[in-house]
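Forwarding the complex inputs:
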Amino acid sequence: VNINGVAIEDTFAEAFGMAATRLIITADSLAWAHVAAASFSGFATSVIACGCEAGLEGELKADQTPDGRPGVAVLIFAMSVKDLQKQVQTRVGQCILTTAGTACFSGLEGGQPIKIGGALRYFGDGFQIAKRIGERRFWRIPVMDGEFICDDCAGSAQAVGGGNFILVANSRSAALTAAERAVAAMRKLSNIVLPFPGGMVRSGSKVGSKYKALIASTNDAYCPTLKGQTKTALPAEAAAVLEVVIDGMTPDSVREAMRAGIAAACTVGAKGGMLKVDAGNYGGKLGKFHFPLREIMA
Amino acid sequence: LTFRLKAAPEWRLDLSPLTPDRLAAVASRDVPRIAILGGNKTTPAGDLFEIAPGDPSDIRILDSCDKLDFIGRDMRSGGITVDGNAGAYCGLNLAGGELTVNGNVGDYAAAGMSAGRLKVAGDAGDHLGGALPGEMRGMNGGTTVVHGRAGQRLGDRMRRGTIIVEGDIGAYAASRMIAGTIIALGSGVGSYPGFGMKRGTLILRGDAERELPTFGDCGRHELPFLNLLLLQLRDISGRLDQFAAQSKFVHRRVGDQAAGGKGEILYWRN
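Prediction (whole assembly, two chains):
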């Protein structure tokens, strides 16, 4: 099976169940909402060491937000609801509350509640005000540029983390071009985020290491400089590999994103230096979700 | 299900049996036999009203007058529409559903209300959304909209929920208020709003005749909270929607500092 001369490996991406929520950040301008979102989803590439994975889901027009200001939606994923609570609380508190002019709202209903204002209200030191409007409870926390407004809680959902595909090319520029095209296509979709820098990761990892202290180490099978030194998964011509990791609210949203991303990456084609599309898995025993590449691209 | 008042009653009548929840359990032929208390005696509903059978979740009280008290008391679901005025305690302890009065309501309307919606096309008496004498809490949830004026002690001891009065309001609005939101859109505001106010928000378009000295001036601000509030309350009051397009600058005064002092009066002038 190949697309545009690029081989689609007969394998599958293995993904895990994660707890996730969506937050809506508004500000005086879209640019300031982006500032808050970038800070919020900074250092949130992988649960391996960041505690969560987060990213920008999309932009919202003024008439799509609770307070009528322009905003963005961010998604955040963690291994459990408890971890998610901790991450949301610290990140909203340190990154959104601190950004000039922002407000932060729940973008997801249902599931176990994740406290936002319910946890941050104490920052108001007794001057905070709770406001129930309709069914929702909001907090007004006095800050130096006025008031920080946020929902008491956001909802949460069981979601999918770690959907992925691996782009193998005969040069670094070809791999980068393919990955950039994949990311551009996938960023148009909702219900997913690409948590790694620029939407792609160059240091894919395997589970475990020769060093006992490490739980993950470099994925030597996909390192082109180790082709002759380890049991490689790469063809002889391979010179660079980039992986795109997808966290999605549902398995279907991950599948749809993988299809869009792989299709866009393959437009580079064999002529452009793309060799094959692969995917990361752990033999299928660890992850709850499997995404077979050939089935997705069929 | 329609009740048309035959003649103005001699005594004030207690209409609390006539709610959708209570009538759902009554067979259609038994409705005229429901005992209505007036003065110290009861009268069958059929003697007081011309009754047209129908859906008990949609009750209409026609040719109503201000002697009909306790309309919609304890109502949990469905709707009651009143054509004409309603007496005192209209929507007392209202806990759900929609109560609409196409006329005025008397004192203590929406007192103790906890959910649902009360709409009044005309004016409301004193203690709208307030607490009955001896009660610790007034309105505790839901939304009340009065298109006309409201009397004194609007939202007395109010604990939660939203009251919108499109017209003028009397003295001591938000007195002893515990929490919640009151919006008064008329230019006339009686004396001493926020007397004994603990928490909560009172939004005023006009200046009070006299102000309490126990409110601290926090200055003029453009509050994003007001945007949020107005957006969430959209389509409830036409007059509020008109104002929503205007400047969101408010003058914030906080008090009553003789009673904890965490309530706020937002003077929303242009």
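Chain A has six helices and 18 strands.
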